[in-house]
Amino acid sequence: HAVYIEKVLPVALKYGNQVFGSDWVFQQDGAKPHSHHLTQQWCRDNFPSFIIKDRWPPNSPDLSPLDYSIWDELVNTINWNKVQSETTLIQQIKSSFKTFVNQLFLKVVLALPIDCIVFVKTMETICANKNNPVL
To answer: Any idea where the domains of the chain sit in the sequence?
Structure first.
C-alpha cells in the first residue's frame, strides 16, 4: 500500500485535477492496496470527492465480471514453494489458472445478477445524498 500511496495516487490526483478540475469523484476497486486504511485516509484527505471502500459498487467487488477477484483467486492457488525465478512463477501462474478457471467463471456468472442489483441500490443511495456522496 505504501508504494501505491506514494507513487500511484499522486499521479491519479494530478491527472484528475487537470482533466476534470475540482469537480470529480475518485473510485478504486477492491485490491488490497486500495482498501488499506492508510490508502483510504490519503484519498479522503486529497481527492475532491472519494467513494469509500464500503460504498464501492457493489460494496467492494469490481463490476467487471472477469476481474471479479481473479487476482486473489490466483494468488491463493499458486504453490509459492515452487517459485524460484520468473520462469517458475510463470509456470505456477499458468498451472494455477488451469485449476480454478472453470470454478471462477461459474462463481462470476452466478453472482452477477446480485451484484447488479446491489450496484443499482448503491447508486440510488449515492444520488439521493447529493451533498455527501462518500458517506
So the answer is: 1-56, 57-130
